[in-house]
Amino acid sequence: MFGLIAAAYALLSDADVRRAQRRRPGSQFVASTVHGMGHVLNRHLRRMSERFEECDAFDAETLWSLRRRLAELADPELIAIYPHGDGRSPRRVNGTAAQRPADATLHAVQRDGLCHEVVLALVHHLAEETRASLLASGGGSALPLLPTRHHEEHHEEHHEEGGEEEGTAAAAEGERSRVFSEYRSQVSCQQCHTGAVAAAWRDATLPPPLPVDPVQPGRERLRSCDYQAITPNTMDDKEDSLPVRLPGRAGPRERERRHAQPGGGSYAPMHATLYLGWSRGAARQRYDFRSGKGARTASQIYLQSGAQQRRNESGAMVTVVPAKGECVCDTAIAGNMHIDSFAADALAPLHSPPCRRDELSPIDDPSAPNRTVLADHWLKWAFHFLVDADPASPSLGLPLRLYGHLGVRQIFSNWRVGDPTKEKPDVWRVPAGCKVLAEACKEFVGSTEAAF
């Protein structure tokens, strides 16, 4: 039960009216996918109150009760401001609870839809004063966060003809259609909170959202060059294994993930200098590979213009092998590391909270032979980053380790912050005569650094 129920509707504030009149939310409340939208808005909800809990912790009956109580507190003057067809307008709340589906696989669909509806009512149907009183009331009930998954309806084929089996299949299909129809009418947040993202908040490398994996929900969040293969790869699971043992210093902000120690197999070490640069809306990344401490053996340059980011294109990848006189430009396999990948602002849409904080003993790092590093563990798609979290460290906020699928490990050291073109003027320039294999290359080939 709510600890406080307003006896009369609170007066609408100027902020209430301005929010209701503004259809498009501010950039800090927008993400480019439904999955990202849930994470973005949930951070704002947690900032409002400590009473918010994961949607999975609620049952449909509790959520229906919350929805009906919020409908009683809804301000009719506020709702009247919303234009017809606006996704924020309330749905009609009946006097009886929604029917629980007989098919257990539909329970999560029904629950997630109700979580969306409860959050919508709390944020958009209550006057600011009423909402603040409700959240501040002592002993109040928990409130749901938004789900970060999206459900897609899949129709099953039935080949039985006549008899009881056909009737049962038809009833099950009818129930599925009813639940998903209700769900689609509840999930209206993405009408305004997803889509084109302002440049300052853009992450151009996000792929299109994938449907929830029916066997292992959560697997669809993983993305690497081979993670979207039809046949799952060995060790690909929703628990995200990490090939290093770390003593935890602080608990996870998200659910704990399982640690694993894969055995067997090895890779020859590769050494490279990594350059990163962002200016005039373009994202750039370059590897200069070398054998040990010897001469450069190859280079890879990743170039992504602002226009390509806005089109959600990964840009161009230039591969240069000096010893063979080879240079090829093709479509990049992925976008570039974003300048805000490890931003300090926990409310930034591109920020994914560290899974946990760890003490990291140096691994093959001659620049810090006996130093134990305090690092935050981040998950970016299927890549695990350990980011320097020591306030006294010169590399604070910069990656120290990267762990990926199939045993990939990268060790970063000797970071220097500055303009790479001061040391290497042609660092982003595509060599003359480079073979062009993709349309994405054409705006970079033959251009000077300033041209893009």
Mean pLDDT: 71
What summary fits the major beta sheet?
6 strands, antiparallel
- The low-confidence parts are 1-9, 194-208, 221-246, 250-263, 344-352, 448-452
Bin the strand percentage: 15-25%
Q: Going across the major beta sheet, what is the strand order?
A: 3-9-10-11-12-13
- By secondary-structure content and strand pairing, the structural class works out as alpha+beta
| Number of distinct helices | 10
Q: Please tally the β strands and state the result.
A: 14
- The Rg value, from CA coordinates, equals 26 Å
Write down the overall geometry.
elongated
Biased composition (Low complexity): 138-147
Region (Disordered): 138-177, 232-266
Biased composition (Basic and acidic residues): 149-161
Organism: Emiliania huxleyi (strain CCMP1516)
Description:
The protein has 452 residues and is of the alpha+beta class. Among the domains are: 14-193, no CATH class; 271-337 and 432-451, no CATH class. Helix content is 24%, strand content 17%. The longest helix is centred in the middle third of the chain and has 24 residues, at 163-186.
Strand-helix topology:
Blueprint: H1 14-21, H2 34-48, E1 52-53, H3 60-73, H4 76-81, H5 107-124, H6 128-136, E2 143-144, H7 163-186, H8 190-193, E3 248-250, E4 271-279, E5 282-290, E6 296-304, H9 306-310, E7 316-321, E8 326-331, E9 356-360, E10 373-380, E11 383-388, E12 399-403, E13 409-411, H10 420-423, E14 435-436
Parallel strand pairs: 1-2, 8-14
Antiparallel strand pairs: 3-9, 4-5, 5-6, 6-7, 7-8, 9-10, 10-11, 11-12, 12-13
